[in-house]
Design brief:
By secondary structure, the protein is mostly helical. The protein has one domain (2-71). The chain has two helices and no strands. The longest helix is centred in the middle third of the chain and has 58 residues, at 2-59. The chain is rod-shaped. 0% of the residues are buried.
Length: 72
């Protein structure tokens, strides 16, 4: 009976350790996902700013557009 008790304890410890590892891995993946979301949000902000600049250039008079193109 002593041996069976030790075997059950070892199995319980191994299963607990495996569960803890899975939880830690999921938390790390969630943090990585959040960082990617922040990077994607920053990229979208940059693209929106570029679109605003292009809209401003396109809606200006031709004279201003030529000047802007020559300046670039």
């Amino acid at each position: 009976m002593n041996t069976l008790f030790y075997v059950v304890c070892i199995v319980a410890v191994v299963m607990t350790a495996t569960t803890i590892q899975k939880i830690a891995r999921l938390r790390l993946e969630k943090n990585a996902s959040d960082e990617m979301t922040n990077a994607e949000t920053e990229r979208l902000d940059q693209l929106e700013e570029r679109i605003r600049v292009l809209e401003r250039i396109v809606t200006e008079d031709k004279h201003d557009l030529r000047r802007e193109i020559n300046r670039l």
